[in-house]
Amino acid sequence: MLTLKKIYKTHKEVIGYLFFGVLTTLVNMSVFYTLDTVPTIHYLFANAIAIIVSIIFAFFTNKKYVFKSETSTLYAWLKEFFLFCSFRLISAGFDMFSMLVLIGFFEWDSNLAKLITQVIIISLNYFFSKWLIFKK
After folding, report:
1. How far apart are CA 135 and CA 70, in angstroms?
2. Is 105 helix (H, G, I), strand (E, B) or coil?
3. What span, in angstroms and rounded, lies between the C-alpha atoms of 81 and 2?
4. Beta carbons within 8 Å of 116's beta carbon, 6+ residues apart
5. Domain edges within the chain
6. Were 128 and a residue from 28, 54, 87, 109 both cysteine, which residue would form a disulfide, CB within 3.0 to 4.6 Å?
7. Predicted pLDDT of residue 21
């Protein structure tokens, strides 16, 4: 048990990021799955909405629980939010492109394509958040 505590203490930020990354992915995939099953909603539109909802969820959880970023002014908060959204839009572009290629060209199952894409997105977003947005 002592070893687990030591591992947690040493890697608390990464573990927190992975935990909230999994939750963000569940939010993203749940919204996507819900909208993708509606026959009149195109999968790319469903994906765009899922990305927006998950970006908002991820900002608040990453800011408060993972990177414990405290901003003393509205300007500082808006700067973090703008940077977060900007870098998430970069990864969202990758997300949309991957979905288009995997589903549109290779005709993969949409949920499998979404899951594989999300694994890559989580890694990209950790790098962006750790080194460019919530840097201490």
Report:
1. 11
2. helix
3. 37
4. 98, 102
5. 2-133
6. 87
7. 86
Residues in Cβ contact with 96 at an 8 Å cutoff, skipping those fewer than 6 apart: 44, 47, 48, 51
Q: Which two tokens stand for residue 39?
A: 């026959």
Q: Where are the alpha helices (DSSP H) in 11-136?
A: 12-36, 43-61, 74-99, 110-128
CA separation, residue 1 to residues 4, 6, 47, 84, 98 (Å)? 5, 9, 41, 36, 41
Sequence letter at residue 105 = F
Return d(Cα 53, Cα 58) in angstroms, integer: 9
> Average pLDDT of each block of 10 consecutive residues along the chain (136 residues)?
79 90 91 89 91 94 93 94 93 91 94 88 87 84
Name residue 5's amino acid. Answer: K
* Rounded Cα–Cα distance for residues 19 and 121 (Å): 14
Rounded Cα distance, 50 and 29, in Å: 7
CB atoms within 10 A of CB 30: 13
Closest by CA position to 114, among listed 42, 53, 41, 36 = 36
Rounded CA separation 14/122 (Å): 11
Predicted TM-score (pTM) of the model is 0.79
